[in-house]
Design brief:
The protein is an alpha+beta fold. Helices cover about 35% and strands about 20% of the residues. It is built from 13 helices and 24 strands. The strands form eight sheets. Strands 2-10-11-8-7-12 form a six-stranded antiparallel β-barrel. A six-stranded mixed sheet has the order 4-24-19-20-22-21, covered by helices on one side. A hairpin with an 8-residue loop joins strand 14 and strand 15.
């Protein structure tokens, strides 16, 4: 396999003496004396604040020089380093033969608790900090114009050079390289700064940030244009993410991204640095790809650690009434957030397919939902004598207030829901209920929850402060009792019939 081309490492201008030489101490002493003398001279001519300001200015210049050189070398490689790569068929979305809900039969209740083996536990890695630029990007004081766009119902504004319409001068390698150089100029610094500011303001996860850049670029350059693809790729790259560019036989640009997680249903291309995923579909078997790495680039992550702060567009109230009750719980969700979740790719952490549910279950519910739903639920569960009783009521509500339906019938394929989506769509299945229930118990009761996957079924297990009767998982010194949101009417501790406990797998979730 050929070696991956990398922008040559740029020297920081420092020098290093040979520590093994006989005169190494003398050399270090000479250097120290020179530095002391230089500091004395500078301080004699000005204040220590002047010294600091000069140092800060020099450091800023060095940072900018580093980034400029990196982009210049990257553009130079774009003139020559395109090679044909065969497309890899997308990994099919996992299909689970989900079992239908079962109504609890008290007469067949088994009173002896059954421990569930937990040799197979899927650990959840700590989310990493989001990527960042290789160097601070200085504000540009030149004339600019404001470009406005919308992403998931949310307005965004970025600054562009005034009187400068970003336009490719052709559909070839030279044109792409020249355009990269244009975007790399200081005139476009404000564009990158504004995009990063929007990422921070709206708490955008990596995928939301990528989608925002796509909306922004298409608004500025036109939908489906090479200019839009290149602008999205450039800003994502300058923000610290791993990207590759490819083009079709017609020289239409395509953006590929590297992910920490395996993504299903997206075309992939095997690079020297692993699989890169194609955002735009192509009918061709392959692409000419510029497999050049950018300094300190990082793959995107599909974790959603914070609530995505999209503009609010509340749905109409929906009543979710549990069985044998006239009291309904009213819910509302943010349609803009649901629209975003519709774009989210199915993925898994590492190589274990069951880990995909951890991504959904660890995503926090929005303020829109919590402000409407949680006061109603708290008003009910605060009357419970303990957390076990409160968890029992929440379990019964999830068991009986939602309509079950198979994903294949509704979507044509398996699709897990974020908790928000279960409150929005009219149908859900066992994995969706378990994800929602795990969020409610952690948020409202402060108890630890795990997911338990049986072949064809997903349930939850809760760690109560006291030992309770029923089937359980003993894990890390805690007793997690089965709570099955799809075993209709079943109490805490009851496992759905015909579940194979020996084949059960445990998925750890974040602790609230």
């Amino acid at each position: 396999m050929r070696n991956r081309r990398t922008c040559p490492r740029i020297s920081d201008g420092s020098h290093r003496f040979d520590s093994k030489g006989d005169n190494s101490f003398v050399r270090r002493l000479v250097v120290a004396l020179i530095l002391i003398n230089a500091t004395y001279v500078v301080c004699a001519q000005g204040t220590f604040q002047d010294v600091y300001n000069n140092f800060k200015q020099q450091a800023q210049t060095d940072y900018e020089d580093f980034r400029q050189k990196a982009n210049k070398e990257y553009a130079d490689w774009m003139r020559q380093a395109w090679e044909w790569h065969q497309k890899i068929a997308p990994m099919p979305r996992p299909k689970d033969e989900m079992l239908p809900p079962v109504i609890y039969n008290k007469e067949k209740e088994q009173t002896a608790p059954k421990p569930i083996p937990h040799d197979d536990v899927e650990p959840i890695p700590e989310p990493k900090p989001q990527p960042k630029p290789i160097a601070p990007i200085r504000e540009n004081d030149g004339d600019y114009r404001i470009a406005s766009f919308t992403f998931f119902g949310t307005e965004g504004h970025v600054r562009l050079p005034k009187g400068d319409a970003f336009k490719l001068k052709g559909k070839n390698e030279e044109a792409y390289a020249v355009a990269w150089e244009v975007l790399s100029s200081e005139r476009y610094n404000n564009l990158i700064r504004d995009c990063l500011a929007l990422r921070m303001e709206h708490q955008l996860c990596d995928w939301a940030y990528l989608m925002m850049l796509g909306a922004m670029s298409e608004s500025i350059c036109g939908k489906g244009t090479n200019e839009a693809v290149l602008m999205q790729a450039f800003v994502f790259c300058q923000s610290g993410y791993k990207i590759r560019l490819g083009f079709t036989k017609e020289k239409d640009l395509r953006l590929l991204v590297k992910s920490e997680h395996t993504i299903f249903d997206l075309d992939g291309f095997k690079m020297d640095d692993g699989i890169f995923y194609l955002l735009q579909s192509t009918d061709y078997d392959g692409l000419n790809i510029c497999d050049i790495s950018y300094p300190e680039e990082k793959p995107l992550s599909l974790w959603i650690a914070q609530e995505q702060k999209f503009a609010e567009s509340k749905t109409k109230e929906r009543q979710l009434i549990p069985l044998d009750s006239l009291i309904g719980i009213k819910t509302q969700v943010n349609e803009n957030l649901v629209s975003f979740y519709n774009t989210y790719p199915t993925s898994m952490v590492g190589e274990d397919i069951v880990s995909r549910w951890a991504i959904y279950a660890n995503t926090p519910l929005s303020t829109c939902v919590k402000d409407k739903l949680y006061p109603q639920l708290r008003a009910i569960i605060q009357k419970a004598e303990n957390k076990f009783v409160a968890a029992s009521w929440l379990l019964y509500w999830v068991q009986t207030a939602f309509v079950y339906e198979y994903d294949d019938k509704v979507w044509g394929h398996d699709r897990a829901f974020f908790a928000e989506e279960t409150l929005f769509y009219p149908f859900c299945d066992c994995e969706d209920r378990s994800i929602l229930y795990s969020s409610l118990v952690r948020d409202l009761l402060g108890l630890d929850v795990i997911l338990v996957f049986y072949p064809g079924h997903l349930a939850t297990a809760v760690a109560f402060s006291e030992i309770v009767d029923g089937d359980y998982v003993e894990l890390y010194g805690k007793h997690y009792t089965i709570c099955d949101p799809t075993y209709i009417g079943a109490p805490i501790g009851a496992t759905m019939p015909d579940m194979d406990n020996k084949a059960a797998k445990v998925v750890l979730l974040d602790r609230k």
